[in-house]
Every structure is written in C-alpha cells, then in structure tokens.
Specification:
Helix content: 40-55%
Distance between the termini: 33 Å
Number of strands: 4
Strand order of the largest sheet: 1-4-2-3
Radius of gyration: 20 Å
Shape: elongated
Order of helices and strands: EHHHHHEEHHE
Length: about 190
C-alpha cells in the first residue's frame, strides 16, 4: 500500500517527491548567493565564500574543490576563467559548504525550543487524471517538533537518509500518509 509509489504519474498526476520539496525549502531558508555562477559576480562571490578563511578552504577541499592553490588564485585575480565543469563543481561545493555552515542555526530555528514548526503539505496535482481514477487528497498541515534527522541528512547530502527521515515524519498523518509521498509543495518557515 502506501510506502513507495512504483509508477507515479501513470494516470496523469504530477508533482515532486516530498523529500525533494523539503530539501528545496531548506535551501530557500539557508539563503545564499542568488547570482548564477556563470556570471562573474556570482563566481567571485562563491570563490570568496569558499576561500576567505583556512577553515573555509578546508571545508571546500573536503566537499570536492580539488584545484591547486595556483589555479584558485588565478581565478580570484581574474587571470583565468574556470571551465564549465569547474563552474558546476564550484557551485556544487558552495551549496554543500553553505548547507554545513547554516545547518545548526537552521535546526535551532526549526525546533524552536521543542515547539517545532508548522508544515503545510500541498497534495499532488490531479488535474490531468480522469475523474473516475482521481481520489480526494486534501491540503494537510502538521507540526514537526524533531528536525534533527531531516536537517542532518539535508546538510550532508544524504538523499536516502532524508527520504527515510521525512517518511518517518509524515507517518504522523495517519493511514493516509502514503498519499503525500508526491506533492506539489511542502511549505514551512523558520
């Protein structure tokens, strides 16, 4: 029954996995550099963020920024431009380091000293599903009090861990929790 949809969208329903919606919302709450990495301003902002302190450099190296110090200096000085593959790597490393840096602060804000955060779950879109095949799925809200596993999995990039943590959380919706594996949006603020 619920747990895992095998052929999602077979009859025309659309949406995204709930865990992807949660990760996207956590990324929005984490904030960060909005300018794309392909623009000089976005590239320089990311490089400065990743290289401003020895700790930041170490975190960037651990996250996968494996270029030499000489290359990094040439990029920062504007003497050389990174390749497309390196631009993608810089952006990915920036996201990983940013998540690690804000995870504890975000966790504290979401837990709110044990009060938790109210989460809105918007069901999947059934506008293209035949009437006889569609089902009634309502907009749901719930209060999540324990964000530790969710934020930890998100900050480390552990997709399976995030999926398991989110599934364990939505089980609190009761017997209908499987209807919310795919959603149009999951919204919360901190």
């Amino acid at each position: 029954m619920p747990e895992r949809n095998i052929e999602f969208g077979k009859f025309g329903a659309s949406g995204i996995k709930g865990t992807d919606a949660v990760a996207r919302q956590l990324d929005v709450l984490a904030g960060g550099i909005v300018t794309p990495v392909t623009a000089k301003r976005g590239l320089m902002a990311r490089l400065h963020y990743l290289t401003r302190t020895p700790h930041a450099r170490r975190s960037a190296r651990e996250a996968g920024l494996t270029v030499t110090d000489r290359t990094l200096k040439a990029w920062l000085d504007g003497k050389r431009t990174p390749t497309r593959a390196n631009l993608e790597r810089i952006d990915a490393v920036y996201r990983v380091v940013r998540r690690q840096n804000v995870a504890q602060h975000l966790l504290k804000r979401l837990n709110r000293e044990g009060r938790g955060t109210r989460v809105e779950i918007h069901p999947l879109n059934q506008s293209r599903v035949e009437q006889r095949l569609s089902r009634v799925i309502e907009h749901r809200t719930m209060n999540v009090r324990r964000w530790e596993r969710i934020v930890e999995s998100w900050s480390t990039g552990d997709q399976q861990g995030l999926d398991d943590a989110w599934t364990d959380t939505i089980v609190d919706l009761g017997s209908q929790w499987g209807q919310y594996e795919y959603v149009t949006n999951v919204g919360f603020a901190a």
